[in-house]
Model the fold of this input.
Amino acid sequence: MPGISRKVATALAVTASTALLATACTGQSSSGTQDDASKDTTITFWHAWSAPNEVAGVKALIAGFEKAHPNIHVNVVGNMTDDKMNQALRAGGSKAPDVISSFTTNGVGKFCSSGALVDLNPLFKKAGIDPATTFPKAMSQYTQYDGNRCAVPLLGDAYGLYYNKTAFKKAGITSPPKTWSEFEADAKKLTVPQGDTYKQLGFMPNYHGWETTTEHYMGQFGPTYFDASGKSTIAGDRAVADAFTLQKKLVDDLGGFKKLEKFRSGLGDEWGPKHPFQTGQVAMQLDGEWRLGMALDAKPDFEIGVAPLPVPDDKADQYGKGYITGTIAGIAATSNKQNAAWELVKYITTDTDAVVGFSNAIHNVPSTLAALKSPKLRYDPRFKTFLDIAADPNSTTSPASINGGVYLTTIQQLGYDYESGKVTDLKAGLKKAAAQIDTDIAQAK
Amino acid sequence: MAATYTLRAKHRRSRLRTLAFLSPWLIGFTVFFAYPMISTVYFSFMHYDGFKPPTWSGTKNWKYVFESYPFFWPALRNTLWLVVIMVTLRVLFGLGIGMLITKIKTGTGVFRTLFYLPYLAPPVAATMAFAFLLNPGTGPVNSMLEKIGIPAPGWFNDPDWSKPALTLMFLWGIGDLMVIFMAALLDVPKEQYEAAQLDGASAWQRFRFVTLPNISPIIMFAVVTGVISAMQCYTQPLVAGKVASGVIQGAGTMFEPGYPEHSTLTLPQLVYNLGFQRFDYGSACVVALVLFALSMAFTALLMRRRGGLIQAGD
Done:
């Protein structure tokens, strides 16, 4: 290299590389801000809702907040995906959100352990609010990880059973099933074959049948998922094996995996008007509380019934419980307006009237114990089933994990392999899945 | 002495001028290639979740990806399948269509347009359309096959048929290759065909000894660019898997790419999944480096082998 000596060139290259690496985007975790929430300020709120009634509900919620806090203005950005939120929380900057609301609880462990969202425990303490007595147990559980409460429930989702009352009458079934064995018998009675497919299927048990995910089934069996040291317990947990066995039996009894998959692939999509429950193609459906409004909007030619999901025969006394999840809210660690942001989070998640108003607007389950009992709640009488499931102390959720919902994906993957017959030895499959979960968690630490 | 000094100054000015002209490329190379490349190698040895500062983890990420991450090997196999099968079929099909259209006497413009149009369809829209057409339960393709007594495949819902279904979709969007091959075919000197014909060469011999040597650089171009784009295949398998699985992200639900049974999982999907969904940037960097090394290896292999395809002076 004439002109510049080789040594100088090497030194330059090394310096440039080091400088580039040193300035690499390494993220940051703010230790809190000293902003004055009583002064005039504007904060940014990102949420995921997009349907017109939902957007109107958010607008009304924020209007209520701005009325109560005239000095804090909220710049609302809707229809945000989790991926975009993740990137914005990492990158920060003037356009990044101060407050986020995500549709899934699966990211909570990741948000808390990484420090992407601030720990709200000190703020709750300062405000004199006890989360344990404010939120239902399951919701309180899924918004924290390892003692760090970096998220708050903002309305919830409770899973129950929708059934076609007209089809029930036709099949001579007088009431919704309360145990899984009753459910199995009803699903068979309600199945009407047509050639090599179905005129009406009693229940779509396949794990790709939208909300029929492993964790939703397992919620009824009460699994623990992890032991005190954080190791996966699924290999030895009877609840998990029972849930898998039941689902596989349903798959086999109702026609077999291939036949069911072919039927499923021809059904309308989950969020469209041709949802198979709404069209009468499937007589029973495991789903969240939002389905009621959607099904009623589709004006089906049958009567819709709603009930809690069945429970195992030996746990009949727990009938009424369900799987609980929901939307969460949190404050970005990169925000420099965390005090003002806390005012917004506190209002939208703990003010009973605000929570009730938002629940009325978007037909989700209220996320505080006070709001669940509020006389201001307006709902179809059938919606009460979901309110009861949410308030049921036996209702369960899936715990937060350091790598988010990766363990649920691993369990779900085993579910796909087991239902399709790719895995035949369930015990060995569960053992392998548990080992994988532990490895994935070790990798994330 | 003065003359030597003037000469040196002249050389220096010349070097500076060269550097000035090269600087846009040098800046681009540093910012968009060298820096990301060095960073990727650096982060592949770090534990980094994108929030906390990275910490040294040695070869942990490499071990995890190769030994414990269950999706790596299926994704690698799928990517290689696409590279070998799909690229071969695309080149053969593109060349075939190109040859057919150059032979057509009337309506060439119409056929060119018809074959080129699908290439313009946005990848997501094209995939959604194919997922609809190939739906095993309600798709028109299977209805037709069933009517004529052919067993209808599960297409995107069957792990054995999902990659052939993807290939079929990529063959449908062959317009880009067809245009390139047509230009190359029309460029073959007519005199060579006339001479071959006078020597009594058959149609196959004319193709083998006249057409093929003339268009070999274009075949090489099509293969190399095809291999690179197959390596980067992301959108179409992701959308196809997502639509066919019926899982739409909502409260409490999630979607891991690869439906059904990892059969549509590709390496770029893993980079996204590990980096931006699991926040495991270190492992994502390992997969990205594997992808880069594979692309380089395939390209180098093809370029070394080009002697058989590209003649001297091409």
